[in-house]
Design goal:
It contains five helices and two strands; from the N terminus they run ββααααα. The chain has about 170 residues and is mostly helical.
């Protein structure tokens, strides 16, 4: 790619991986954008953590989110596998072994890494909702929405892990 700009989107259309063009107002563009935003916030989380193991997990996730974005952008071929979802579950289970069980809701707060992780979780949930909406009119593999659902769970548990039990609990009427 010699230039970053192509001018091909100036009329409100964008190209998909299958060479079709759609309106930028299509819900599919929202889904792709929210997946990209999730990836960007995860990159921010990575810049705030010191654990090499967690950084490696987040690196794998960022690559998988690129695969997911391509898949949602109508790339032919299922780039996400059930084993990718299983991997997230294994990481969740391993982190939860070191966390006390939740007895009440927690607020999305904590230290900078934990707070940013909560932000990544909420953006991921939005990406999942938009992907479900886009799936009504576009061919999107089931693994895409499953991965986003499980990723938001992973990000919640990671936020708890990063906050190292310094969590802010919701006080009813607080």
């Amino acid at each position: 790619m010699t230039r970053i700009y192509t001018r091909s989107g100036d009329a409100g259309k964008t190209g998909l991986a299958n060479a079709t063009r759609i309106d930028k107002s299509d819900i599919l563009c929202d889904a792709i954008g929210d997946i990209d935003e999730t990836n960007a916030v995860i990159g921010l989380v990575r810049s705030l953590i010191e654990s090499e193991d967690l950084d490696e997990q987040l690196s794998v996730i960022q690559h998988k989110l690129f695969d997911l974005g391509a898949q949602v952008a109508q790339y032919k071929g299922n780039l996400l596998k059930t084993s990718d979802i299983d991997q997230l579950e294994q990481w969740i289970d391993a982190m939860q072994e070191h966390l006390p069980p939740l007895k009440q809701f927690i607020l999305p707060a904590g230290n900078p890494a934990g707070s940013q992780c909560h932000l990544a979780r909420t953006v991921c949930r939005r990406a999942e909702r938009k992907t479900w909406q886009a799936a009504v009119h576009h061919d999107i593999e089931a693994e895409a929405t499953k991965y986003l659902n499980r990723l938001s769970d992973y990000l919640f548990v990671l936020a708890r892990t990063l906050n190292d039990q310094d969590e802010v609990f919701w006080e009813v009427g607080g």
